[in-house]
Amino acid sequence: MNLLHYPELLGIIPCGLLLAWFMILRPQMWLISFLCVLPWFLTDTGAGISAAEAGVGAFFSVTVIGWMIWRMATSQEPLIKSWFDWLLTFFVGITFLNIIVALANDVEPMTWFSEWSLFVLMLYYFPFRDVWGWDEPGRKRFLFFSALSTIAMSALTVYTYKKNLSNTAAFAYQIWSSRSALLGPIHLLALVAAIATWFETQHRKHRLFILLVTAANAVALVLTFTRTLWVMFFVCLAIIIVFLRWQQTFRLFATLVTASLLVYGGLMMWNPKIADIVLTVAKNRLTSSTQLSGGDRSFETRLNEASDAIDEIEQYPLGGAGMRARFTTWDPIHMATNRAAFIHIGYIALPYKLGIPIALVMYAILLVFTGTVLRLGIDAFRRVQQPMVRAMSVAMVAFLPALFVNIFMTGFFDQRWGNVMFALMFAFVGIAKHSPLVHPPSRS
Fold it and tell me: What is the C-alpha separation between 242 and 233, in angstroms, rounded?
């Protein structure tokens, strides 16, 4: 192979070798590099898969698997510490056998691999937990670099919106159609984590940084114009309030009201007409969900996909149809039949692609995860955890409803951002679970 024919590889190969060195000798630098590349990797969604995307995705997969093998070979401390860890590694490993089913259904091997490799991203949970999870400074670094990554993602969301929106936009459809909803769930997770962390830190510079994270992700979340995420933000906020004292709750509401007025006032000063249109679009987005006939075509699309996919599951209940296998469904938006490989409802997408038995393994992972989160929430309510551990516990308890709703609405499992979010959330819980308590909870 002549490298001159693939100029992207001239940069990818030396960077890959450098990161492989970091992986072994400087694992923190490897993970920081991973988080720094994420904004580009998660948003570079043009037609097809570019050589750069394929190279970076393959490197992400190879390095985390290599790190796990190296870690188990060189350390006496076990990497697999719980049933959750066993289930997760088993799931990623057993899904590789799905290639047999996919090939039988005429799926291209590289196309199949591009989707299967996304499951490998969940394994970053292990290095996040082991490299940064053993002390309070490490936990702060984990939260800091993760937050920096979300700020960069927010900047890309805003840039995409501005690029899509004409400066002379005068109609509601222009405001809405210019949106970029891809990373909305990440912005919501960042917002929930930032608010939970705000009440666990007393340093002024740390609070200023948290305000920056909150503001950046709040703006990006608004610009997604995704009503489900807007509603879930208030659900998550209500759960956070359960863990706050009344003085903290009052300050939280006062801050939210002030920030909303400042944003609206700034938008009115910039362009009053655009501000009115934005409010109109937001109102229409929130009310359109009550109009399934002729009002919410996106929801009709999901229902059609689900019905047709269930028919396919009944034909292939054990092995599924294979990842990236296509099925025929009716698209009410374009009023035509469509050969689709993507299913928005993740709970149905898994058994369609992998079969019911393997899908049940993933559901078991989510069940164990939920149980652990609820136990951590009890410790957080009793205030027996260290500050950053408590922040992560509260954030996960608050985000739990949003996670299950997002899996239902967004095809979480076969998205790059979805599997990265799994890695981050699993790491939050893994770190909190293995961290010592400040004092044991009272038995009285």
Answer: 15
